[in-house]
Amino acid sequence: MVEETPWGLRNVGVPHYEQFLHPVIKKNYGKWAYHEHVKPGVIKHVAESGDVLYTIRVGLPKYVSTQTVRELCDIADKYSQGYIKFTSRHSATFFATDEETVDKIIQEVESKGFPVGGTDHSLKSIINCVGWTHCHTAATDSPSIAKALYEALYDYFKSYDKLPERLKIAVSGCLNMCGATHASDIAIIGVHRKAPRVIDEDVKAFCSVPALVKICPKYAIRPKKGDPRSVEIDEEKCMYCGICYGECPGLPIHDPKNDGVSIWVGGKVPSTKKGPMNSRLVIPYLPNNPPHWPEVVDAVKKIVDFYVKYAEPDERLGETIERIGWEKFFKLTGIPFTDKHIDDYVFSYMEFRKGVTFKHT
Fold it and tell me: Do β-strands 260-265 and 280-287 pair in parallel, antiparallel, or remain unpaired?
């Protein structure tokens, strides 16, 4: 925010959010009586004063042009008193003070191809990173996987009572997890399966050997014997994270034949019931198979079908698995349990072979 002072214009940081609140929200801030879900994507908020405000949740592509933003803002100017909110899951929220305006907003946005939904017990908007489009370390194409999953699970986005609780899916192109996949009910993460190649000429020209040695979390990189200006990689220690490639272009990690997708489940942020939970690996590898990603879609549908069938009301996916047991989860979904599910990371000694997640009887 820029503020005018006797010494000229001065940058005073981020503007206070209050000035962007809808008038009804600002008037009744902290004084709401209740809310109810009246239809997919629409929530009715009632204040203690009797004021009513409807919020309309609209699904959006994760990357939009300025023309699309202008179209959305035009709708906000026309029906929502000029107010629009972009959520952390890449959705847009419009505001209305009467049901007639709600119907007009829904008709307008859906005529432009934007679905209304994603509230209450539904599939939330899928988060994804840029994938192959821009990222140099991505092992898979996050946007196209997200699109394929939307097509397969669209009915869950357009409803608010077909799931036991909310379902959050995120897709990340690599283990850096720009898509917030570590805290999602179902996470799709791109994986490399071979150690980076070493291009000696590029390492010598552009990279710092001490920095490369220090940046590797498994200490798999060391100065090259006989040529300390380059490096060599201990493939038995390498976990294919790609961090070194981000530091040095002389260590490319991409491998079209071996790169692929892993699937993780059970993450969440809320502190309700079992508290925050991190996602856990359930499928270590599926092949990259664009553009429709049938293997990934089939696996996710199996997990969602399990969730719908066995979860109790208001229970997140991770809580369902913890309640019935991970062994039974693998059995009921038909997902094979392998040695890749055993955590043998050298810095995980606090939990390695001490947990009771798996009870083999």
Answer: antiparallel
Same domain for 263 and 226, yes or no, is no
Over residues 217-232, the mean pLDDT reads 93
Q: Is 90 exceeded by the pLDDT of residue 231?
A: yes
Residue 62: partners with Cβ closer than 8 Å, 6 or more residues away: 90, 127, 128, 143, 146
CA distance 186 to 50: 39
Whole domain around residue 331: which residue ranges? 127-191+259-341
Tell me, rounded to whole angstroms, the distance of Cα 347 from its chain centroid. 26
In-domain check, residue 356: no
Looking at residue 23, its pLDDT comes to 95
Q: Are 308 and 153 in contact (CB under 8 A)?
A: no
What kind and span of H or E run contains 10? strand 8-11
Query: Does 253 reside within a domain?
Result: no
Residue 361 scores a pLDDT above 50: no
Phi first, then psi: give them for residue 58, nearest 5 degrees.
-120, 125
Please report how the helices 326-333 and 294-310 are oriented relative to each other, as an axis angle in degrees rounded to 10: 120
What confidence score (pLDDT) does residue 89 get?
87
Nearest CA among 61, 234, 63 for reference residue 135:
63
Encode pLDDT of 80-113 as tens digits. Answer: 999 999 998 889 999 999 999 999 999 999 999 9
Residue 357 belongs to some domain of the structure = no
Determine the residue type at 46.
V
**Cα R_g (the chain), whole angstroms:** 24
> What confidence tens digit (pLDDT) does each residue in 179-200 have?
778 889 999 999 999 999 999 9
User: What pLDDT does residue 270 have?
Assistant: 86
Please indicate, yes or no, whether residues 100 and 185 belong to a single structural domain of this protein: no
Distance CA 83, CA 219 (A): 51
Q: Residue 134: what pLDDT?
A: 85
* 37 and 55 together in one domain: yes
Structurally, how many domains does the chain consist of?
3
The answer to the question of residue 154 being in a domain is yes
- The C-alpha atoms of residue 183 and residue 278 are separated, in whole angstroms, by 5
Sequence-ordered list of residues with C-beta below 8 angstroms from that of 242, at least 6 positions apart, any chain? 137, 139, 174, 175, 176, 192, 196, 253
